């Protein structure tokens, strides 16, 4: 048998196995074993409408909602990424000062308030859906005031929505899940 014919058969068999059969098998297993994750970890509101994915941050403009970390890519998924500004960059320092001033202004805080770093710096992807518990608690009085809710109720909701990081991760609050939980209080 000709060596070219054998090589062609190997390429066709491997393409069928690794390019078609294997991906279909893994997709099928994923859908059976982890259906929520395999379908994008979508979050729905009380009416069943998809409001986003628990894996991706999205911009929030209303003062009635908790705000996520800043995004260097304006929360766009395709060109996502970091700003790549160095820690000694004047541009980064100016950006952090602007963000701090905005957080203080939006939340009616004293000028000398220590703002959690996750409200000042974008994540590496620019799409991190979590903020720290401290960042959520800093925003809680504003959200409670805007929604005419008792602060204790909003703080309790934060505590209920902490995602435990487990062995290797940090605890965090998924902003979209928290905001959906706020809307369900109505």
How do the strands line up in the largest sheet?
Answer: 3-5-4
Distance between the termini: 75 Å
Q: Secondary-structure element order, as H and E?
A: HHEEHEHHEEH
Low-confidence stretches: none
Instruction: Find the count of extended strands (DSSP E, 2+ residues).
Output: 5
Helix content: 40-55%
Q: What is this structure's SSE topology?
A:
Elements: H1 3-33, H2 35-38, E1 42-44, E2 50-53, H3 90-106, E3 130-131, H4 133-147, H5 151-160, E4 162-163, E5 172-174, H6 175-184
Helix pairs in contact: 4-5
Describe, in plain words, how this protein is organized in 3D.
Belongs to the KdpC family. One of its GO terms (molecular function) is ATP binding. This is Potassium-transporting ATPase KdpC subunit. The protein folds into 2 domains: 1-39, no CATH class; 40-184, no CATH class. 47% of the residues lie in helices and 8% in strands. It is mainly α and 186 residues long. It is elongated. The strands form 2 sheets. Strands 3-5-4 form a 3-stranded antiparallel β-sheet. Strands 1-2 form a two-stranded antiparallel sheet.
């Amino acid at each position: 048998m000709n060596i070219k014919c054998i090589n062609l058969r190997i390429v066709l068999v491997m393409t069928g196995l690794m390019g078609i059969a294997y991906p279909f098998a893994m997709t099928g297993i994923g859908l059976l074993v982890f259906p929520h994750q395999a379908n994008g970890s979508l979050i729905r509101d009380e009416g069943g409408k998809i409001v986003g994915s628990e894996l991706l941050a999205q911009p929030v403009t209303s003062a009635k909602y908790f705000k996520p970390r800043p995004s260097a890519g304006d929360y766009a998924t395709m060109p996502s990424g970091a700003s790549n500004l160095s820690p000694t960059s004047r541009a980064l320092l100016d950006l952090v000062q602007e963000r701090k001033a905005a957080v203080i202004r939006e939340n009616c805080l004293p000028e000398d308030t220590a703002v959690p770093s996750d409200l000042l710096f974008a994540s590496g992807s620019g799409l991190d859906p979590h903020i720290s518990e401290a960042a959520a608690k800093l925003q809680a009085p504003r959200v409670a005031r805007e929604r005419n809710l008792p602060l204790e109720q909003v703080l309790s909701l934060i505590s209920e929505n902490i995602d435990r990081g487990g062995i290797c991760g940090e605890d965090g609050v998924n902003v979209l899940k928290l905001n959906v939980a706020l809307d369900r209080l109505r």
